[in-house]
DNA sequence: CTGTTAGCGCCTTCAC
DNA sequence: GTGAAGGCGCTAACAG
């Protein structure tokens, strides 16, 4: 009968290195007060035995949990997955978050929470009680939900708000949505457009207002037409994009370019334009506010603002881990750079 | 000064319900030997206090960890995320796996592992030691890597192999790749094609062989042309798809239809065809073997086999959880249904 | 610098 | 049916 493959614990390492259990603990936690020689001996024992501390036991010991919890909006996320519309928000989050966590020997656990639900608080409390994460990453619109931020604050759990710029507690991490919208608008102005339509995002997202502001500022600065009816309300969805675009194109003097606050709405604009017999970009230029995979594959492919989702999530993870480690971390908002990717959907207006 | 928001533990619940700590444990674990009245009382206390057991403490107590570990291929996954080519494998996995886990009060932790690396074993051992998951979900090609399956087996950790059909240990969960390839081929035969090209997947994946078999069987059964040069090697990548397609189209008697083992290769086939001045589907029909978002947005959109990734992952999670619970679970391979989605890239051949 | 002593929150085993 | 010990692997606090 083969030897039972028992788990290697700190005790085994201690015995192997001929030191106390506590010394081993000090070594793996980079604690002070261990002679280099001993440290070395312990390290060798660790390698030899292939010892890896149990995350659960570590937590129990009263230290960190080495876990970060990332919270996304349930409905929107599941809807995105179900529809298979190619949004890669989650992938980019994982890319940035997981890799950063891995660097620090942390794990990121991804979870879905319904912002609107009456029991947001209960849902999140449960997750916190069960997991005891060292930090929480909030993505839009959670970062702007006071129920959530207050809960976290009261529990004393560090958190980061992605896509959220408000002052408040927690690390605010965003790209400059206002500047991005302005940059997109300037791109259109530079091409010679004067009537530029704008489709807003859901009001629930703070960044929607920021984008609108940026658009307005650029329009004004560029001396283009400022008219309220050039701004049509949307909520990021394809359907809302259809409605908004129809509305814009039905104006007596319709815009020659449209800036949409999401990829789905931009795609919708493209569809409406096509249905109306308009050539894109000849008759109508379109700019998308997400550079998700699909906008590269539409015909024409869309000029788009690219959000640094991976970078924002990585930053969030980094800040949270540093905060937990006790490192001094400034709480100035992090504003990460965006990209304007010019593709085939924008060109000078015909008239 | 506000009351310090201490964590609610099983002790508090016990006190609140006026029972022993142990009785509470019995209730939350559906243990036997608790009077309904008491059980009720405890449940109420739990609700009132908002108690949720700590996953870490549970593990330490010697029971389950309520964690499932999902292992993906590192390079391929990161490459997919970086390129933003719209593959939604990971999303579909999360959709199926996380939701199923949530049902059972489990968590799925997603991790990347390099199959080729010399230290696969070490990497995985570390993750296991740190997390102590109750089960592991292996995605291609990990499920076919004996180093990994043997390690898991020797450690006695239940695991599921997605996209893997081999006998071996662990739950085999797959779609019928062979049947799917046959179905796609039959679809083309039905349209009147006689020379059907096939681009294989990487040999490292067991399913690549299965697909080839299905194609061959259907070609033979359909009385179509069986020729070795109608089969071109690929490795799932766009680049390999370009090469394979050029090779097929350069044949003296080129195929009138191509079945590609991945979306990227199908897209590559489309590009080569276009570059060669061929009309798709007029001159060349193309079928993709992944129904990722982008193949819906190509022009024309691609007819494709849709893998039930979410369903497979959900099944994996379910089986693993049941196995841990001690429920009897058969170990017959699970074969889940696929779909053939007919779109604009397939039509009868012109000649 | 290093070892010893208490727990962390829960579950298992054994009494009652 | 229920409760009382004991310990899981680790770390914090305190000795030496």
From TrEMBL, chains A, B:
UniProt entry tagged with the keyword Manganese: no
Domain HTH lacI-type, residue spans: 8-62
Keywords: DNA-binding, Transcription, Transcription regulation
UniProt key word DNA-binding: yes
Gene3D superfamilies for the chain: 3.40.50.2300, lambda repressor-like DNA-binding domains (1.10.260.40)
InterPro entries, A to Z: HTH_LacI, LacI/GalR-like_sensor, Lambda_DNA-bd_dom_sf, Peripla_BP_I
Highest taxon listed in the record's lineage: Bacteria
Pfam family membership, one: LacI
MF (Gene Ontology): DNA-binding transcription factor activity; transcription cis-regulatory region binding
Protein's recorded name: LacI family transcriptional regulator
Provenance organism: Sphingomonas lenta
């Amino acid at each position: 009968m083969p030897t039972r493959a028992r788990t290697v614990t700190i005790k085994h390492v201690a015995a192997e290195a001929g030191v106390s259990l506590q010394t081993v603990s000090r070594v793996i936690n980079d604690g002070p007060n261990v002679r280099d020689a001993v440290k070395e001996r312990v390290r060798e024992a660790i390698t030899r035995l292939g010892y890896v501390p149990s995350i659960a036991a570590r937590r129990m010991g009263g230290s960190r949990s080495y876990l970060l919890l990332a919270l996304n909006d349930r409905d929107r996320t599941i809807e995105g997955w179900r529809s298979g519309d190619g949004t890669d928000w989650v992938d980019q989050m994982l890319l940035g978050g997981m890799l950063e966590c891995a660097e620090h020997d942390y794990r990121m656990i991804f979870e879905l929470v319904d912002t609107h639900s009456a029991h947001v608080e209960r849902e999140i409390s449960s997750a916190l009680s069960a997991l005891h994460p060292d930090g929480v990453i909030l993505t839009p619109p959670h970062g702007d939900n006071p129920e959530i931020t207050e809960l976290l604050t009261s529990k004393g759990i560090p958190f980061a708000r992605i896509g959220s710029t408000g002052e408040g507690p927690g690390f605010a991490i965003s790209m400059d949505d206002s500047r991005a919208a302005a940059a997109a608008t300037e791109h259109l102005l530079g091409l010679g457009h004067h009537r530029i339509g704008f489709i807003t995002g859901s009001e629930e997202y703070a960044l929607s207002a920021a984008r609108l502001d940026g658009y307005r500022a650029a329009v004004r600065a560029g001396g283009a037409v400022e008219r309220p009816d050039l701004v049509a309300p949307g909520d990021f969805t394809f359907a809302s994009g259809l409605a908004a675009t129809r509305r814009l194109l039905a104006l007596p003097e319709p815009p020659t370019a449209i800036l949409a606050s999401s990829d789905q709405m931009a795609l919708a604009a493209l569809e409406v334009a096509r249905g109306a017999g308009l050539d894109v970009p000849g008759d109508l230029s379109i700019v998308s506010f997400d550079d998700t995979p699909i906008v590269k594959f539409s015909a024409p492919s869309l000029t788009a603002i690219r959000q640094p989702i991976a970078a924002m999530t990585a930053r969030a993870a980094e800040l949270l881990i540093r905060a937990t480690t006790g490192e001094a971390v400034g709480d100035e908002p992090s504003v990460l750079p965006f990209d304007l990717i010019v593709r085939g959907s924008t060109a000078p207006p015909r008239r």
